[in-house]
Structure formats: structure tokens, C-alpha cells
Amino acid sequence: MLLDINLELAQSIILSHIPSLASEELPLMESFGRVLAMDYAARHDLPMQARSAVDGYALAVGEAPVNSSFLLKVVPSNEAAVISEDEAMAVTTGGSLPEGTQAVVPHEKTLLQDGKLSVLESIKPGANIKTSGEDYRQGEILATTGTIIDGGVAAALAAFGYSRINVRVRPRVAVLALGNSIVPFDVSPEPHQMRDSNGPMLAAMISQDGCETVSIEVADSIESADKVLRHMLSRADMVVCTGGTYARGTDEARQILEGLGVELFYWGVPIQPGSHHGAGRYQNALVLALSGNPAACAVGYHLFASPALNSMQGLTSLPQIVQARCINGFAKKSGSRRFVRGHAEYVNGGWQVEVLPGQKPSMLKSLLNCNALIDLPAGTPPVGIDDEITIWLL
Amino acid sequence: MLLDINLELAQSIILSHIPSLASEELPLMESFGRVLAMDYAARHDLPMQARSAVDGYALAVGEAPVNSSFLLKVVPSNEAAVISEDEAMAVTTGGSLPEGTQAVVPHEKTLLQDGKLSVLESIKPGANIKTSGEDYRQGEILATTGTIIDGGVAAALAAFGYSRINVRVRPRVAVLALGNSIVPFDVSPEPHQMRDSNGPMLAAMISQDGCETVSIEVADSIESADKVLRHMLSRADMVVCTGGTYARGTDEARQILEGLGVELFYWGVPIQPGSHHGAGRYQNALVLALSGNPAACAVGYHLFASPALNSMQGLTSLPQIVQARCINGFAKKSGSRRFVRGHAEYVNGGWQVEVLPGQKPSMLKSLLNCNALIDLPAGTPPVGIDDEITIWLL
Q: What is the rounded CA–CA span in Å between residue B293 and residue B305?
């Protein structure tokens, strides 16, 4: 086991131990936001045959004469029809065209009187006709594995009649708060106890990352921690422990995990907040231990858990890192590398970030309205107003 | 009814007719991603009493002497304990402190031998103690109405034991594809028919916007359109019609809506794609008619439907607009204002956007990988490589 390794090494070790997840088949209408588990290709040319691109009239003449007399006889719309040069047939957007169609003229460029049609503007051969295969050729890739099913992907899958879609299963995450003075958030605490806010926080973040929290527990003794963890390790793709001290010494979380047979990759990453962090695995489950302090727990989730959950789903794992102007400064110097919680906005052609109030690791306040982590390298002096700093966009 | 009005006026008319939605109470653990329907405040000071900010030892001396001899007697942890100046008591992060505590020293700055403790680094009075109310004072606002419940909000609500949360109901949207040659996407089309891809596309976009698609139908005749719409108008907060021509003339969607008693605010917005668009209301339901062409339907959703759905939930309604460098250009000049589908990325300190392939309104292709609309004013000449253009981030 490695001790006190740097952040990037810790992240790369986690990302090299991502469990492989199964796929499942879902109805298209229940697959939105999920991640494709295979490539999807066009089953046929789209459109399969020429179609009208507008609401209007199909014409059999390549260049319709433009004038105000009513030249063309409007014949009834009929799927099997043929039109001749002196005829026009009403067609609808996306609808099929009669045999002999050379162009389609939109309604607004025509005048209709007594069943006779006049074309008001010149129209070119092929105008407003979608040719077969114009959008997709048979076999052309629509979307590759790892693509999130958004509106565009849903439209393409629907257009080819894909009604059941092969997607990655949602990673299952179990969350355990360790500590003898922690009670579940919906239990009234005794004076010496406090509510677990990390469990609901992590569950909300896990949900936002498209994953499922399968259980969320509190262990008020080492014995119950052992028992609950054993159960979690058998049914989750990732187990996240927060806190983990029972006043019997340091790094009890580490001892509990090792006692259960968890293979720890490393312990300790010298960042603030949240240096008491470790990662390992147990069979197919990834195991992360995060600090119990709320801000440290949140930072640890973003730096270690979220990239792993993204990677399990085949998505880009790490958040985008950009330069930003700090609008309010940060008075403390940073001994070790520090992740300050901020609110970032793109304004007037550049990113700016506000350092949020309540930056002690033990405080919740900086997690409200937080959409960025400010990455201050070890030894950074106090940050001034308008200083340029590096931020991770969450 | 107004005819052919500009985009900004159309948007402001829609936003001035947003139906007011009810709220509902959900368990905190089922409220993630939802929008608060009231302000939430701290129910008490947090912490309620002084707590340890680290795992370590509570000391009764303000400035513990630093040396290597073992001075302090470690006494058993006890919720009701008092410590004296020659004693230390093990405490855990977030745990309560014995009476008399002046400071907490972290484990890693101590040595323990034979039940006696030595402090290795100087420690200041008050160090590592969370004072009562340090994070929140009773009555202080945690999050205001209109806030999305993310990890930080969930943590704050949990910390005060809010177990049932008052949130906005999800707007209910009904989607109807009008047109006599359209079949549901999971039905095999006859040669003259085509699958409805707009319904699944809109449902995916509606889901991404945090709303619920309550029904999605296809009407292959004016009579069935009438019947289905009547039903939808009675049970949805928004009805979106796409297409709407049955080869009997122009603007049949408009005639159908007016025939049902929908009060139309306007009809026609001179943008490409999707100028055949209108908006109105029927009792409490907002009604939007969008073009049936896939790209026009998608653009119409982003410009008209999505802002309305955001506004119903009390969220920022319009997308962010930024300047971007076009990396591949766009060869057509734009007669009317045009919304080109693009893929935007923030790279090397600036936004860049790629014009996606397949920009005909009748094509799906430009909707794949689309995360931005490029806004080209009327009369814009062809866009060159590296030209600066305006984009709407989706």
C-alpha cells in the first residue's frame, strides 16, 4: 500500500481499477440520460425514398413557370399517384411524393383558385425534396457506445425503430457513515450526537452522476461497521465510507477495511480538506474512504468518487479545468494543496469565481451554491481580488 | 393574434403566460434534482454545542506544553465528562467535547504511551473546536425557493433533520405529432409513411429539463387530432404539437388549435428553421406548435418550450449566450435569422464551436452531439473559419 501520494497518482490508480459493468436492455422511452452500451447504426437509408421537405405541392416540371395565371391542375393526393407536367399534388413535410415529382413548391409560394395552382416564385429542379439516404445511409453510425441518450440520440434511434436500447447498468453505490456519535438524518440526535448529512449529500451527488444509491447506513460501533460493510461489499459496485473514528486511535476506517480483507491501493493524499482518504477494492467493488467533515467529504467525492463513477459508465472521467478570475480573494495561505469551494460563472468573455463563505472543512456552508473547486497548489500565498486561479468545473 | 413577430417578443409573450404550478412534499431522499418551493432556514444553531473539528484529544489547557515527556493522562471518553488540566480525552470529528475543553489536538500531533499523552506541536486556545453556531445560526436561510436540490442543499436540509421537502411539482407535458403520414416510432411504417422521431426527441429533452411527458401521441387525421388534443389540454401544463398538415392547405395546426378554442398569442416567427411556430393557451395549459421537421422541432423546443418549462419551475429561463470562434465555418448566407446546430467546447481560454453536419431542417444528423445553437442574424454572410459568432449554450 502506498502512503501519502499525490492527487493525480491517486486518481490514476482509482481509474485503473474500474470494475466492468454489465449492460441491460431498456425501452427507448425509459432510456433517456442513460449511456449507450453499443454502437447504433442506420438500419436503412433515411429517408428510405424521396420525401417532401415542406408542406406544399409536388410538381412534375423541373422549373415551374412563374406567373399569375393558374396553370396547374391540382389532383387528389394519393400514395400511388403519378403526376404529369400540367398537374400538382398537395404534399406534406416528410410525406411521400408522387411518381414524376421534379420539385416541391411550398404553400406560401403558390396561389390556388378553383382547383388550379399558380407558382409565384421560381423553383429549381430538386427543390424541397429530401432524396433517399440524404440524412443517413444504411449502416452509417448514429451514435457510439458511451454516448448519453439525449434528444438528438433519441430522435435518431426512434427514426430507425430501435425500441429497446442496450445501455450500461447504473453503477450501484453504498454509503456508510462511520462514527459513534452519528445518527441517521431523520433521527433526533441526543446532545452528544449529530445527524449524518454526508449520506444524503453523497446520495444527491451520486444521483446527479446518473448512478444509484443502493443503501445508506450509519455504523455507531466498529462491530456494526464490520457487519454493514460486509453486506455492502457484496452488492455494490462502489462503497463509500465517510469518517471512521471511534475514539480508539487514528485511521480506524483503514483498520476496519483492512480487517475485512479490502485490498487498499493507497492511504493519505496530502490535500486540504480531506487528506485522510484511501482507496482500495474488494472483489469487484471499488472502496473509497473519505473524511467525515462535510466539506472534505464533498471534495473527496468530486476528486475521487465522481471520476470513478463516470468511468464505470464509459463517460469522460475528470471535470474540466479552466482559469478564472477570483472576484473576492481568499485570505489564507495554503500549506498543502487546497481545494476551496467556489461559485463560477462565465461573464463578459471569461470565467470568474467567487470564494464561498464558510471554508472550514467542518462546515457545510461552502457547499451551498458550489459549482467549482478552486485548486490552490501547495505554498500558494493568500489569493487577491482579480487574481487568476485554476478551477475545476463541477 | 400577432403575426410574424421577432424571437425575443415571442419568448417574452410566452414567459408572461406561465401557468402557476402547485408544490408537493417529498421525502428528502426522493427530492434530488427537484426545485425548492419554499425557503428553508436553520432550525437551530449548527453545531448546537461546541464540537471537535478533528479526530484527536480534548485538552483543558489553552496552550499545551510541547515536549517529548508524557504529561497528560488519557481519561476514558464519556459524554458527561469533565477534564482537568493534566488530562486529555480522545474525541472524534464532529463529536462532543468534555466540559473544560480549551483546544483539541489532532492524533497526528501527539504521541501516546502507557496511557500518557505528549503533544508534539504547539496548539492554540480554541484550536480545532467548532463553536456552537459556527456553521449556521438559528433562523439563517439555507436555501431559497427556486433552488435545485443538489448535494450541498441535501446536506444542509439533512443537517437540520428536514425529512420531507416542499418542492415544485414537475411540469406535465403532452406531445402530439400531427400529420397523416406519421406513425409512432415503434410501428413499422408503410412505404408512404414515416416514423415519428419528434415525440421521443421531445420526451428526452423534457426529461432533461426535469419535467414529465404525460403522453405522446400521433394523430393521422384532423378528427383524431381534435380528439387527442382535447384530452391533452385537460391534463397537461404544456401541450406541444409538432407538424400539423394534412395536405388540405397551410397552417392546419393553427386551424385545429383555434377550432378547439385555444387562444393563440401569435403565429409565425421569422427564423430558420422553424418559422411555422405559434403559441397560445387553453385554460391553464400553455400550447406550443412547432414545425414537424426534426431540426426545426429541436430548435423550437430550445427557444420556446425549454424556457417556459424552466420558468414554470422557477428556474432561470433562457440559456446562456456567449461569443465563440467557429472552427469550420458555414457556407450559406442567412436571409432570415438562422439557428445553426453546433458543438461547443471551452478550449484554451475561449469558447469554440463546430458547425455540425446535416443542417437541412428536414435532417436529424445535426442534432447528434449538439450542445449549442449558433445565432446568425438576418443577412449574415457565409461564416468563415475562425469567425467570431454568437452561440446559445444548451
A: 16
Taking contacts as CB-CB distances below 8 angstroms, the residues of chain A near B90 are 247-249
In whole angstroms, how far apart are CA B227 and each of B19, B194, B238, B278, B331? 23, 22, 17, 20, 44
Burial class (CB in 10 A: 0-12, 13-18, 19+), A192: middle
Please state, as a whole number, how many other Cβ atoms lie within 10 Å of the Cβ of residue A99: 11
Q: Chain A partners of B33 at a C-beta cutoff of 8 Å?
A: 204, 207-208
Give the pLDDT mean for B308-335.
95
Delimit the domains of chain A by residue range. Answer: 2-22+170-312, 24-44+137-168, 51-130, 320-393
The per-residue pLDDT of chain A, averaged, comes to: 93
Residue type, B43: R
Query: Is the domain covering B26-44+136-168 a CATH 3.90.105.10 domain?
Result: yes
CA distance B295 to B370: 11
Residue B111 above 80 pLDDT?
A: yes
The full DSSP string for A117-161 is EEE-S---TTTTEEPTTSSB-TT-EEE-TT-B--HHHHHHHHHTT
C-alpha cell at A377: 497548489
For A229-272, write each residue's pLDDT tens digit. Answer: 999 999 999 999 999 766 566 678 999 999 999 999 999 999 99
Q: Are B345 and B391 in contact (CB under 8 A)?
A: no
Nearest residue, CB atoms, A107 vs list B130, B194, B250: B250
Closest by Cα among B379, B95, B327 to A179: B95
Name the CATH architecture for the domain at A2-22+170-312.
3-Layer(aba) Sandwich (3.40)
Query: Minimal CA–CA distance to B341: which of B361, B312, B316, B322?
Result: B361
pLDDT exceeds cutoff 80 at B78: no
How many Å apart are CA B267 and CA B279, to the nearest integer?
A: 7
According to the 3-state scheme, what is the secondary structure of A267-327? ECCCEECCCCCEEEEECCEEEEEECCCHHHHHHHHHHHHHHHHHHHCCCCCCCEEEEEEEC
CB contact under 8 A, B179 and A93: yes
Sequence-distant (≥ 6) Cβ neighbours of residue A16 within 8 angstroms? none
List CB contacts of A12: < 8 A, sequence separation 6 or more.
Answer: none
Name the CATH superfamily housing domain B51-130. Answer: Molybdopterin biosynthesis moea protein, domain 3. (2.170.190.11)
With DSSP H G I counted as helix, E B as strand and the rest as coil, what are the percentages for chain A, rounded to 5? 20, 35, 45
B145-161: b (≥16 Cβ within 10 Å) or e: eebbbbbbbbbbbbbbb
Closest Cβ–Cβ partner in B199, B247, B370 for A92: B247
Peptide bond into A273 cis (omega under 30): yes
Optimal mutation site among B201, B316, B359, interface A, most CBs of chain A within 10 A: B201
Written as one string, the DSSP assignment of B248-288 is: SSS-HHHHHHHHTT-EEEEE---EES--S-EEEEETTEEEE
Residue A339 is inside which H or E element, if any? Answer: strand A337-347
The nearest alpha carbon in chain B to A49 belongs to: B191
Residue type at B336 in one-letter notation: S
- What's the pLDDT tens digit per position in B177-222? 998 889 999 999 988 888 999 999 999 999 999 999 999 999 988 8
Which pTM was predicted? Answer: 0.93
Domain B320-393 has CATH 2.40.340.10: yes
Chain A residues with CB inside 8 Å of B369's CB? 152
Identify which of A55, A181, A197 has the shortest CB distance to residue B245. A55
Write out chain B residues lying below 8 Å of A349, CB-based.
322-323, 350
CATH homologous superfamily of A24-44+137-168: Molybdopterin biosynthesis moea protein, domain 2 (3.90.105.10)
Distance CA A268, CA A259 (A): 18
Say if the Cβ atoms of A204 and B150 lie within 8 Å: yes
Q: How many CB pairs under 8 A join A and B?
A: 295
